[in-house]
Amino acid sequence: MSRVDPESNSFESSLVQWTKTTSGLVLMLLAVQFLTGTLLAFYYVPSVDNAHLTVSFIERVLSSGAWLRSLHHYGSQWLSLFAFLHVVRLTWQHGYRDCRGQWIASVLLFALVMAAGGTGYSLPWDTRAFFSTRVAEGLVGGLPIIGKMARLWLLGSNQISTLTLSRFFALHVLVTPFLILLLLAWRLRAVRIRLIPRQFIVAGLVFLALALWALKNPAPLGPSVAEAGPDYLPRPGSQFLWLYETLKYVPGGLGSIVGLVLPAMAILILVSLPWLKLDFLRGRSSDPQRLVGLVILSTCVVLVVVMTSASYISDRRDQRTREQLARQAAQEEVVRHQPFSPVLLNESAINSSSTNSPPPAYIQFCANCHGLHGEGGKQGALKFPPLKGVAQKQRRAIDDIVALLNDPKAYGLEPPMRSFATKLTDDEKRAIAEWVEKLQP
After folding, report:
1. In whole angstroms, how large is the CA radius of gyration of the chain?
2. CA 40/CA 202 separation, integer angstroms
3. Which of 17, 30, 46, 209 sits at a 20 to 30 Å CA gap from 2?
């Protein structure tokens, strides 16, 4: 007979107990998010005119504001990681079978944490946030059947505007926190939570590490959309780099499937795992439910690690990209240490009309294709011409450009150029035409 080593069993049992501290870590990080988010909400204004300005105020004027925002920013990333690890731990330790309520709550909590991160990323309304909102708009709009209505609901209208930002704000600070608290209340009522010393120890150490990391690494804040140069390269946060890189290799129509449908299906399968009948897998595993769970989670890990690494590697290999990203980081660091200068709304409007900054309607409808400053752009295999020097061509006076926006085909332009007759007001068309007319090649 084989003899069991009691010291080995004791070590394994102790290791298992330490892995159970993931629940305490998730609760601690949730508390950090709720507290810092509440404090930041006292100063934040969810409008396209003031959002970036108020975040800049928090960063440069509010006492410990930069640290609080960094805690919230990086805490969101750490929370996503530990919520995922918690699901992995439950999968490995048969939580779907022994603790069904905890399993369902943990999977749904991870999904809500990711949703909160996605909606919160747009709130600073810097150039990164604007383009991430464009990506979200495209993903939602590309959904089969419901895409058109879902896009209109998400944006609040036909275009990205203050209504869009206010909806992201409501989803981030009202809807997802309410659902998370509802989920936690259900679990706390169903089971008696026992806080053990090791949970306090691990949670305290992780919070200390997060606090020091946030103190040393300020949360990124790029320029506002109107201030970004033509060479600015927006890059999403680390938790969304995998999606940014994956969408480069996926045809446009499949982006919504990869970015939204497949993750939703994975969450649905994990939630229903305790009740799935998987007898056809008995030949491959004595526990087919755990096999399916581990395959899904392992696929997520491989996809995120591979695509995130590919994004970093491609940026580093391209010398121009590497140098531009370094310049942007240096510029952000300089701006971070400059004195805060408030801008009144009417002053902002005067400056916008007196300089060659792109009008808001151009930023919302045209910048994604023709570039923020009319330098031209590319989306997949489609190339969009620059607008600089357009006024020097025939039939491109201001009135012509207005008419072109109403009926592109009358000026020989074919899709993907589309009519903006019903999407832009006459004043917005005129503002775009006057701005384009001033662009020099």
Report:
1. 25
2. 27
3. 17
pLDDT digit string, tens, across residues 154-163: 888 777 888 8
For residues 73 and 265, is the Cβ–Cβ distance under 8 A? no
Cα atoms in the Cβ-side hemisphere of radius 13 Å centred on 390: 24
Among 59-68, 109-118, 248-257, 305-314, the least confident range: 248-257
Show the domains of the chain with their CATH numbers. Answer: 18-335 (1.20.810.10), 357-438 (1.10.760.10)
Contact 411, 395 (CB under 8 A): yes
How far apart CA 290 and CA 91 sit, in angstroms, is 6
Q: Which helix or strand (DSSP H or E) is residue 379 part of?
A: strand 377-379
Chain length of the chain: 441
| Cα dist from 77 to 28, 60, 71, 113, 116, whole Å | 14, 23, 10, 9, 11
CB atoms within 10 A of CB 96: 27
Q: Between vectors from CA 426 to CA 429 and to CA 405, what angle results, nearest 5°?
A: 40
pTM above 0.85, yes or no: no
Q: What are phi and psi of 379, to 5 degrees?
A: -130, 105
Tokens of 219: 């949360």
Maximum separation of any 2 CA atoms in the chain, in Å: 95
- Host H or E run for residue 375: none
Q: How far apart are CA 361 and CA 430, in angstroms?
A: 10
Which residue's entry shows tokens 């009202």? 174
Q: What is the pLDDT of residue 111?
A: 96
Q: Name the H helices within 250-370.
A: 255-256, 262-271, 288-317, 319-336, 345-354, 360-365, 367-370
Cα separation, 405 vs 411, whole angstroms: 10
Q: Which residue has the higher pLDDT, 46 or 438?
A: 46
pLDDT tens by residue, 102-148: 899 999 999 999 999 999 989 999 888 888 888 888 888 888 888 88
CA 400 to chain centre: 39
Per the CB < 8 A criterion, the answer to whether 106 and 96 are in contact is: no
DSSP at 224: B
What lies within 8 Å, CB to CB, of 424 at 6+ separation is: 361, 365, 405, 432
Residue position matching structure tokens 């084989």: 2
To which H or E segment does residue 382 belong? strand 382-384
Rounded distance, CA 203 to CA 209, Å?
A: 10
Q: What is the DSSP letter of 416?
A: T
Report yes or no: 210 and 71 within 8 Å, Cβ to Cβ. Answer: yes
